[in-house]
Write a structure and sequence with these properties.
Number of strands: 11
Order of helices and strands: EEEEEEEEEEE
Oligomer: single chain
Length: 127
């Protein structure tokens, strides 16, 4: 099985920056890892994905140019660097791991394509 542990969420002022981390452990290797978020009263939405095999990335339009997803292969950890934060970025951020398709171009945005999830970390952006 797989355990995903997120960290780094906290209260930050608008315009500030945060870096979230997600460490994966267990017997399943990631093919793709992603970040999703869920604001109060809203559905969980895609934020960013990173293909573990080829290193390619994908972003939601709402965060493109502000957020960057990276990885440390040796640590089996994915990061989400968030800059120029806005109050509308306030949400619980979840890390997800997909292990279905061994492909250099696989970057799903549908949460149903992911097999394992972390417990979430709260990000609050004050105005």
């Amino acid at each position: 099985q797989v355990q995903l542990v997120e960290s780094g969420g906290r209260l930050v002022q608008a315009g500030g920056s945060l870096r979230l981390s997600c460490a994966a452990s267990g017997t399943v290797s990631p093919y793709v890892m992603a970040w999703f978020r869920q604001a109060p009263g809203e559905e969980r939405e895609f934020v960013a994905a990173l293909n573990w095999i080829g290193g390619g990335t994908s972003y939601a339009d709402s965060v493109k140019g502000r957020f960057t997803v990276t990885r440390d292969i040796a640590l089996n950890t994915v990061y989400l660097q968030m800059n120029s934060l806005k109050p509308e970025d306030t949400a619980v951020y979840y890390c997800a791991l997909g292990h279905r398709y061994y492909s250099r171009t696989y970057l799903p945005k549908d949460q149903d394509e992911y097999d394992y999830w972390g417990q979430g970390t709260q990000v609050t952006v004050s105005s």
